[in-house]
Design a protein that fits this description.
With 324 residues, the protein is an alpha/beta fold. Helix content is 28%, strand content 18%. The protein has a single domain, classed as TIM Barrel (Alpha-Beta Barrel). Bound molecules: S-adenosylmethionine and iron/sulfur cluster. The site of iron/sulfur cluster has 11 residues, from loops.
Length: 324
């Protein structure tokens, strides 16, 4: 499936819930607050129908995200049903890691082959300040459990923050140098709720690239179906390092992903306008043809680029709301 300027879509990011148990300073600093009359999250059947429609259109990779997706009691069942959909070749998930140590093997058995774990600091006190939870030790145990469970890909996500974790670069580089996993530094993104935080804490990814290159890390070629990270490797390191820099030039030119929120809204861009409701077409298998037609029509209207540089972060209050 292509959009109006020839970008090909291979990758669906599906939010399973907007609920989260952490209070990350850049995302939900005051914790999750349930809105009045919030509709129910997509059921297993609705998830199956929406993913099947995208699979028929050629998307082959699905990432389960949120909020914290693993807070759903039926998370394993959802993962299993997505992994069984014909055409889906890779099911990935993103988690804050709070249940990873106990659940890693069960998630791998459910058909998840790639896992991203958010670890913004390797210093326990700083980790607690950022997330509101003093759980770094358990999360590091979770990473070990994920490595034992044999995921094809394990990535650690660290949001770069000026004066918070930007001085930890060398420690983080050391951590991945001896482990077969990938660490990705993500530039903090401005959303409707975090404008002040963004102004104080945003660090350009290029500064990390300059430091990595000075340490002998070299740029790696882009893999098919890869996400937005630019990746680096080093002769003497087992792991890899990626930079996700949405404010860099031409970031949107290689966009290969679409998003569906936990309420069934299609988001053509993380920083676009309000999502477009697909849910009425997710109630019966008989609506598949109409659903596919609607997705194609909407996707052809995807904007060429976000408007973050103009200070416009669209309708997104925080990334937990539509799935970061
Ligand atoms: N709760 C899970 C987690 O934290 O991994 C999944 C959802 S979270 C929204 C997905 C990713 O988005 C995390 O790696 C998180 O650090 C990142 N994120 C959230 N808000 C962000 C922001 N404003 N800028 C950059 N990254 C952000
Ligand atoms: Fe929760 Fe993830 Fe947002 Fe942190 S980044 S508050 S873990 S949704």
């Amino acid at each position: 499936m292509f959009d109006g300027i020839g970008r090909r879509f291979e990758y669906l990011r599906l939010s399973l819930t907007d609920v989260c148990n952490f209070r990350c300073t850049y995302c939900l600093p005051d914790g999750y607050k349930k809105p009045c009359n919030r509709p129910a999250e997509l059921s297993v059947g609705e998830v199956r129908r929406v993913v099947s429609a995208f699979a028929r259109l050629g998307l082959w990779k699905v990432r389960l995200t949120g909020g914290e997706p693993t807070l759903r009691r039926d998370f394993d069942e959802v993962a299993r049903s997505v992994a069984e959909i014909p055409g889906i070749r890779r099911v990935a998930m993103t988690t804050n890691g709070y249940r990873l140590a106990e659940r890693a093997q069960a998630w791998r058995n459910a058909g998840i082959s790639a896992i991203n774990i958010s670890v913004d600091s390797l210093d326990p006190a700083r980790f607690a300040e950022i997330t509101g939870h003093d759980r770094l030790r358990e999360i590091l145990k979770g990473i070990d459990a994920a490595q034992k469970a044999n995921f094809d890909s394990i990535k650690l996500n660290a949001v770069l923050m000026r004066g918070v974790n930007d001085r930890e670069l060398e420690a983080m580089v050391d951590f991945v140098s001896s482990r077969d996993l990938s660490l990705r530094f993500i530039e903090v993104m401005r959303t409707n709720d975090n404008a002040k935080f963004f102004a104080e804490r945003h660090v350009a990814g290029q500064s990390v690239i300059d430091r990595l290159q000075a340490l002998g890390w070299a740029r790696l070629p882009r893999q098919p179906g890869a996400g937005p990270a630019v990746e680096f490797g080093h002769d003497q390191a087992k792991g890899r390092i990626g930079i996700i820099a949405p404010y860099s030039k031409d970031f949107c030119a290689t966009c290969n992903r679409l998003r569906v929120s936990s309420l069934g809204k299609l988001h053509l861009c993380l920083f676009g306008d309000a999502g477009i409701d697909l849910r009425p077409l997710l109630q019966s298998d008989d609506d598949e043809r109409d659903l596919i037609e609607r997705i194609c029509k909407l996707t052809s209207t995807k904007a060429p680029a976000h408007r973050l540089h103009q200070g416009n972060s669209g309708a997104t209050p925080h990334l937990a709301s539509i799935g970061g």
